[in-house]
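FYI - complex with zinc ion, inputs then prediction.
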Amino acid sequence: MIQITLPDGSIKSFEKNTTPMDVAKSISEGLARNVISASFNGTTVETVTPLTTDGSLVLYTWNNEEGKKAFWHSSAHVLAQAIEELYPGAKLTIGPAIENGFYYDVDFGDKSVSDKDFKAIENKMLDIARGKHDFKMRAISKAEALETYKDNPYKTELIENLEDGTITFCDHSTFTDLCRGGHIPNTGIIKAVKVLSVAGAYWRGDENKPQLTRVYGISFPKQKELTEYLHLLEEAKKRDHRKLGKELELFTFSSKVGQGLPLWLPKGAAIRERLESFLKKAQKKAGYEMVVTPHIGQKELYVTSGHYAKYGEDSFQPIHTPKEGEEFLLKPMNCPHHCEIYNSTQWSYKDLPKRFAEFGTVYRYEQSGELHGLTRVRGFTQDDAHIFCTPEQLDQEFKNVIDLVLYVFGSLGFENFTAQVSVRDLDNPDKYIGSVENWKKAEQAIINAAKDKGLNYVIESGEAAFYGPKLDFMVKDALGRQWQLGTIQVDYNLPERFDLSYKGSDNETHRPVMIHRAPFGSMERFIAILLEHTAGNFPLWLMPDQAIILSISEKYEKYAEKVLNLLENHEIRALVDHRNETIGKKIREAEMKKIPFMIIIGENEEKENKISVRQHGGEDLGAITIEEFAKIVETETNKTLKQF
Ligand SMILES: [Zn+2]
Ligand SMILES: [Zn+2]
């Protein structure tokens, strides 16, 4: 008999060679129907793997990440079989599960695959799936494995790097693939498949190696789930910040200026400016002081900070002066500059904490293939700040920063978020700098603060940076996608490297602790995420144009100007559409531009000294006075924008 420990802590006895599926059946028939993969003592196993020792077993269904991984990994096998049958001679390489679905990298030889071939591949996959073929693992000798793949240089390369005795194949139907395991019981569970796209990919990601075709796909246990997923994809496409940024005239790129360097158009710049002043106002109340530092710094500065060792070779190379032989780097981080600001004065413990904030633009080299709209750029502005405090003040400072981050999220309509506390790996104490005592204090400070502020948080051990623990916020957007926003990081390293100090109450010299924090992260990335989250319908207080005045005909132009002036008096940002177009067309275009309020004026409105207001999306507020409208705008603004 063997003893199997289940996730709830219960221990059950089973005959030796019992499989995870047998265990599932012993619990309930319902569970057995839904179990699609398992792990035993932390290692992925098949649901049919005979268990021969005591150990802990976790059973996974489609609702677990692990279950999805097995589902999509298995689907990649089915995709490979479909390709092999439809494209004889195509050479298979690797095909892993990914966050959403799976892919397979294939050398199609002189053939090519495009969207018009997707349907045939999908049909073939469904055909195979319906055969309910079991996935069966088998061990194979290195010599036999090499023999099997003697015509496939890619698999041969993979096998050559494996140790004899550890190599396994997976069979299903008439198909075999080199594989480590982790499958669903049989192909029949795959009910819906979609080939999503093809892209070029180099073998092993190396541009000197052959180019392959990466076929992306996704699969589901129910047709309904595929339909929902495709709808979500469609919605994500509509909300793509690159598309919306163009439509709403927020930003652009120029190949002359250079890739990855966004150019902010007036409306986009207005949003940025509003976000900045919003945060500056809150920061002022929270005791921050604004500082300004240059865009470049001497190479030596970043050697001291350690950034040069980390990024130097793989980043923008030094700028040389014509005569003195000086070397400067484009600023990759603001922290070293702020450390030098701290160092410009002698501080006493009574002066601390010092909180230096800057909307600091930094430059980081990203490969052109990695660039993506505003989310991966080469120059961006961080809403950066560094807090220098005593170890005793860390607790309170952390709580204050969390308050600020939550205020930012609330004001911008991010309601769904979780937090992650990243702490040391206690088994590897040598990995970290700074005293154990300080680490304990800092980790406890973060956990206390997270608890105190009622955050929904998890603790991840081993996820801390070598220089300090941190708290990250993960935000879920309107489409359910996760984004990392807002990091608060404790740092023992830079105070050491820059020899920062303060005089304590004991009159001795002490080292301050440093906190890095950026609620938005970067203005570019934040605005991109906000665009996709709101589909361009920003909170009213942030909208570049809050209202547009549409006159029925040119006759009312004078009245339109009068209304515009009155709105400006109420600090409502509005513009007039003077064009000689039909009112229907003007409304449609204002809708496209996502302007929250359309103010329609004609004969009646002018006579009664009123305006007819229509909201974005169609709701009619009828004819009201400017004062009534200003009240509506104020109420709507106050719904999201609260006082800090
Ligand atoms: Zn496999
Ligand atoms: Zn920093």
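The first helix runs from residue 20 to 27. Residues 73, 77, 170, 179, 183 surround zinc ion (ligand 1) (CB under 6 Å).
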